[in-house]
């Protein structure tokens, strides 16, 4: 989903309601990690405190009401998933989003009809860039890390997958450059770009993803 800017703006809007001015650029650089990590990095407030809990709850409302209806899939998102499924890949989502938000995001891009399963921040003690969500996804697949590959669009995807022993194919459409995504085994502009180059990518059957 083309949602990283919207997630950042939802945080900025929410924090302003609580009397906290947070620069969009600072928040935007942290999108992709879980809210439990983002909030204290920006404000010093932890999610476990009453105020932190209220901020997190309100951010979910702001995102859902103001920004979710405006979101669109990144180019080629559904088409890539359909092709990977037809190639025999098993697809599980590993997201730092809350479960209720993730359900709506997957529906918008049509992934809900294609994926096998999903994991969210509700399935993990620690959010990205810790590897807990990746471990949860691997458990769903019942596969060792060496037999999986992560598709991600933030540095936190690359870091979390690496800590879990999973290789990452990164996408620039999340708003980061190649230096930010270093550690990925390959980098493409967006899902449509990866799909167009699939035969020479690590996703081509017979090619190693490690």
Which superfamily, in CATH terms, is the homologous superfamily of the largest domain?
HAD superfamily/HAD-like
Helix content, binned percent: 40-55%
Number of domains: 2
Task: Note the gap between the termini.
Answer: 26 Å
The largest pleated sheet is described as: 3 strands, parallel
User: pLDDT under 50 segments (min length 5)?
Assistant: 206-210
Name the helix and strand elements from N-terminus to C-terminus, one letter apiece. HHHHHEHEHEHEEH
How many helix segments? Answer: 9
State the strand order across the main sheet: 3-4-5
Oligomer: single chain
CATH topology of the largest domain: Rossmann fold
Which geometry do the CA atoms define?
A: globular
**For this structure, what is the CATH class of the largest domain?**
Alpha Beta
Average pLDDT works out at 93
Quantity of strands, as a count: 5
Structural class: mainly alpha
């Amino acid at each position: 989903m083309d949602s990283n800017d919207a997630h950042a703006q939802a945080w900025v809007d929410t924090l302003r309601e609580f009397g906290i001015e947070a620069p969009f650029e600072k928040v935007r650089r942290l999108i992709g990690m879980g809210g439990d990590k983002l909030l204290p990095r920006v404000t010093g407030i932890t999610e476990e405190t009453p105020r932190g809990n209220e901020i997190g709850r309100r951010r979910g409302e702001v995102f859902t009401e103001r920004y979710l209806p405006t979101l669109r899939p990144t180019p080629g998102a559904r088409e890539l998933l359909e092709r990977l499924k037809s190639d025999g890949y098993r697809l599980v989502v590993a997201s730092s989003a809350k479960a209720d938000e993730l359900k709506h995001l997957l529906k918008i891009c049509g992934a809900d009809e294609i994926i096998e399963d999903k994991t969210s921040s509700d399935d993990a003690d620690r959010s990205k860039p810790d590897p807990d969500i990746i471990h949860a996804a691997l458990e769903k697949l019942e596969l060792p890390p060496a037999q999986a590959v992560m598709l991600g669009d933030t540095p936190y995807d690359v870091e979390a997958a690496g800590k879990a022993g999973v290789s990452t194919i990164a996408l620039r459409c999340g708003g980061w450059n190649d230096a930010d995504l270093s550690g990925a085994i390959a980098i493409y502009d967006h899902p449509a770009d990866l799909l167009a180059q699939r035969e020479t990518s690590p996703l081509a059957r017979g090619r190693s993803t490690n």
